[in-house]
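ARCHIVE CARD
SHELF: 3
SLOT: left
DATA:
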Amino acid sequence: MSSAPRGNGMRQCLSALRAPAATKFAPLAGLGVGAIAGGIYWLAVQLWPSSVALILSMLAGTLLTDDLRRAAAASRIEVLSQLFYFLLKYNVLMALSAAKLPFAAPPDSALCLIMICGYGAARSLLVWLASRAPRSAAPLSHWDLSVALLLGFCPALLLGIPGLIGLAAAVVSVIGLSAAARRGMAESGGIMLASWLAETCFYLGAQAGWSYV
């Protein structure tokens, strides 16, 4: 009797990993994608320059999510937006590859942790967006929302002040996007845009914080 709920939960976890779905499993899926992408970067940078390692890491993160499949049916403006997102993400992550963590860590591991924090924060903010949707297919309890936000936000605390600045930038960007297009946030395009925006703004905020710390 317990196999059905367990199988249903596993399917939801896999679905959350493949697409930026606003479910209670989204933060765990984001942390998982970030850990895999960061791990590939760390392995690749042992053999090649950081620029090559970062491209391989971003490719892995894209393949793990639903970005490529959605791009197939995207409009010209959506394709340009996606291209801008990848270019901006690549450049800010390259800048963050020289970041120093506030604690002792193996070489080249800073960017791995930053990716985990960025993916986790972005996916947890999708859960917050889902909680604000007037007609949600899977309503979230206050407990689920609190746990999701804690799971997604807590890793950023390891980065110190830059991590807090990155979180603030991600939160403000998603709040602004939600206010500007509240009715469209439940659509897949709005969820995808919110995920991109939150992750990129986290990296931009963290980089700005490291410039002054």
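SLOT: right
DATA:
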Amino acid sequence: MSQYPAKVSTLLGETIPWTLTLVGTATVIAFFAGTGLGIVAGWRHGGWLDRVLPGLMFFQAIPYFFLALILIELLAARTWHIFPIGQGYAGGLIPGWNSAFIGSAIYHSILPAFTIVITTMAGWMLQMRNVMITTVGEDYVVAAQAKGLHSRRVVFTYAARNAILPQLQGFGLALGFVVSGAIIMEIVFSYPGIGLLLLNAVTAKDYPLMQAIFLVITFAVLVANLIVDFIVVAVDPRARTREAA
């Protein structure tokens, strides 16, 4: 082992919380923001959000590391010294449940989290928009509008509730891969997550540590998909009907 006598479980326990907090929070924010904007864009097809979407898709086409380097250059290194360049917290602090450490950890995570959100939000928005456009034309949505129901109720109760089902499947996969983290992003920001740990293990040819990391990632993907399947069954009455049959 490259970090002997440290145990594999100890190393994973030290890095997984960092990745879960950063990448998990950023993924959830990107999902809800992108899904919400996608609902509005699909319902009001041809509006201003449709015109903004190509610009947002440009950010999605940019690799994590490239956008991260640009943001570091602009907001941390030379132009504006607003955020720290890297690390998970300020030097000299001892990790613990105190305001100084928590505040420093949040401050150091803003820039990498923003990188993840801005490069993934457009994908959720585009997918939700496309499904919403199809769902809005369904008979049950048209019938709800013909009954004179409030547009907000039609959007969220009839259209968005059914359109979001494919979105949940993709969200399950995204949550599963949260554990693996954004490896390149963690390297660029020197963030102490599992992605950086995996890089160090590969560099040092630490096979036991690599095996443990891959096992945790695989287990996380399976558990996330299982949870999403339960959510889909709870949300979609058609899934419950198929199960009963």
